[in-house]
Amino acid sequence: MNKDAYFIKKTFQLAKKGEGFTSPNPLVGAIIVKGDRIISQGYHKKAGFPHAEAEAIRTAGENLTGTTLYVNLEPCCHFGKTPPCVDEIIKKGIKRVVVATCDPNPLVRNKSITKLKKANIGVKVGLCEKEAEGLNEIFFKNMREAMPFVAAKTAQSLDGKIAARGGKSKWITNEKSRMFARRLRDKYDCVLVGANTVVKDNPYLNGLKKIPYKVVIDPYLCIPESSHLLKGNLGKLVIFTSFASKKKVNPAPRKTPFFRTRGGVKKIPPAARVFFLKQRNGWFVLREVLKILYQLGIMSVFVEGGSETLGRFFMEKLVDKVYFFISPKIIAGTKALSSVGAEGFSSPNSCPYIEGIKIHRLDEDILISGYPCYKKICLNC
Amino acid sequence: MNKDAYFIKKTFQLAKKGEGFTSPNPLVGAIIVKGDRIISQGYHKKAGFPHAEAEAIRTAGENLTGTTLYVNLEPCCHFGKTPPCVDEIIKKGIKRVVVATCDPNPLVRNKSITKLKKANIGVKVGLCEKEAEGLNEIFFKNMREAMPFVAAKTAQSLDGKIAARGGKSKWITNEKSRMFARRLRDKYDCVLVGANTVVKDNPYLNGLKKIPYKVVIDPYLCIPESSHLLKGNLGKLVIFTSFASKKKVNPAPRKTPFFRTRGGVKKIPPAARVFFLKQRNGWFVLREVLKILYQLGIMSVFVEGGSETLGRFFMEKLVDKVYFFISPKIIAGTKALSSVGAEGFSSPNSCPYIEGIKIHRLDEDILISGYPCYKKICLNC
Known about the structure:
homodimer
């Protein structure tokens, strides 16, 4: 590995330290090198905190003339919560800048690089580019499509079941898998589940290091008032429903927390956000759900099931990444619940297939992750 | 690795050459070593052919005094189709015998080893024993339980489906997986399928190197007269049925080939063997099926589905080994057929789990193989 590649890969490691906390910003790491010596480094810790380049420049505490800056993403050229990094780089007399990947945002792409070149700074772009894009797969999806990145997870038996015939589902995967899945929640802005999962499992849906947004797809507003999700951290609870309506009561609270549902009047605490959506063919259009979440500033969604919800996400071609936790058990049973339900695709030749597969052992469990590709999909053949 | 282990592992490689052709005999390889030099070797090629030890002794063509014989299984001490190897070893003046594992048959176990010791031959037993047992897992099962070894195979999507909602199942796995599965047929004495699989796929069920016995579980004798299985090689076709009866016709052929079935009178060629079995709770007791196959000299069964058949085999705890060919596709669908059907187990905590897992990539496909363990099974909890 040459020197540039070595230092660029170091920026990836640095960038990853901010994982789960920089949204809506990307993960960025920066290193300043004089000769062969790293004289300072920085990473973007959290939205609102200094950019990686600014952090590295600040902590250098010495003359930067003649140094090389390594950064995994093109430096910014706009005033946001912090001043543009590109001006700072020029001002400090940095001689050379090595960038792994350009900014995916078409509005700013290449602007900083052009500006650096004009200032007679040597610029090298595109080193370990694919890896750099993978590191910021959430940010790249956001910038390119103005949609949240969607990761889907299942915890299933080897024969694809997430519950036994009578409904028992605890536990299919082992503790190591379950901890791994909790750590994954830290990577994403929200965890999304269908109402059945809340009714059946009454989950908390927290990560290990953070409390993510929690989103429930609940057409009939059937989640019980006693659900863990309806207690605490309500500012982070989002519910999508359709067959419920607000009930006026006197005196009315600030946001009326009573809803008429099929099961009677239900009280949803006012801090929870409830969105009313129309259904099409008996279900929500999940693309609309995602657009609303994006408007709320939710840049990534971790879909944890159940069967129907996951199936619908695949049918709408919305899943960007999958994590299949597989326990080597045989649950069997025609009536046992399958990991991916809904209507299903019509042929093995025209369904999504997973690319870039990685296999990971978690003791006896197996984690298969990868990226669904929808090119071959044909819903009618 | 020491010298003995090195040569014993060589016998495993030799033994494997006979794979699929020695039934009902085990796989055996033998090596004769003088000093550090292999002076001859042999393996059991086919039932009725010389034993590995005899073959090695015959091809040595020199004085064997002072040599060491390596063999993966305890030499025989009985007259069968060939004379006892143990007498030959003693007669030839072989000084030392290294054996990986004793004979699993309790009637002959250790007899040869005792005889060799009495003849003042140095004997070392139990080197790489586990591996040696794995090599002859079929033979060990046969000797210990007087039952065929059962391997089960599925070709499924990542979400456990073997057909899409409309029934389409061609092809789920890739060509490499399908070739691998055909090679597996060469390892076993018979391929077993349910009648639905014959009706739907009309398979040939041949291996690459041999034509195995073909067994069909067909309660209503519903396989079509035009099935590939009913043409050619009929001496190797076995059908289990219950709701059909022989129809007497005049003049009667040697074995009446006409059967009354629900779908009318069906002609099954006389060379096919048809067994009538009673059902219990709407299905055959598969243990009885296996016992009949064992009496026919079928020492190993490769179950290729479909969903219901595989499920039943697991429910009866009869599967000794599994091969899950997984294509990284998402077929989805509540109504899409699952790989392992039937009634299913009642809880993820009390279903079979797979031990000794091996993961193998076949291009983009994944093969997960291992050995089901039934210890935790509880059908009612």
